[in-house]
Amino acid sequence: MGKSNGITKHQLEIIAAASAQEAILAYEKKATKQKKEVKKRNLRNTELLLKNYIKLKNLCEETTQQSIPEDYPEFSLESLTLESLSTYRAKTLKMMNHVDKMLVSYEWHCKRGSVEEQRRYKILRKRYLIEDTMSVKEICEFFNIEQGTVYRDTRAAIKDMSVLLFGIDAIDFQ
Length: 174
Description:
Blueprint: E1 3-4, E2 7-8, H1 9-51, H2 53-62, H3 82-111, H4 115-129, H5 136-143, H6 147-166
Antiparallel strand pairs: 1-2
């Protein structure tokens, strides 16, 4: 049984080892890609939450402050009914409570940090978190900084908030 179809046992072992190595590499590549996609999605979701912060807070204020059970049911878009709209509002309220807690944590951290970290929170606040948000140009004039600094600080603040909101999935381990 040393040969089968002209291939020796040793050749089969080499082929199997090479195939296994290729499968491992493909798996690792796929896992790395998935981690990057999760991080990218978390950053995008954080940015969307911040950009829509005022709208979402206003929606929460309109929602009656019912107690929301920890195990409230999940639902799909296909089941959109008048009853499910209240569940969407409850989900929004719960998420915004989490966002608010993380914003308090972020503010606390920034206030105890460097001048740049303090400015980073203030820029985030003026761009997204107050009723009369400021444009990038207005922020540049207010802080006497360049436009690039506003965008860089905003990106850094969004990354920081993403870690607070989504935990370890938002951290980029390299």
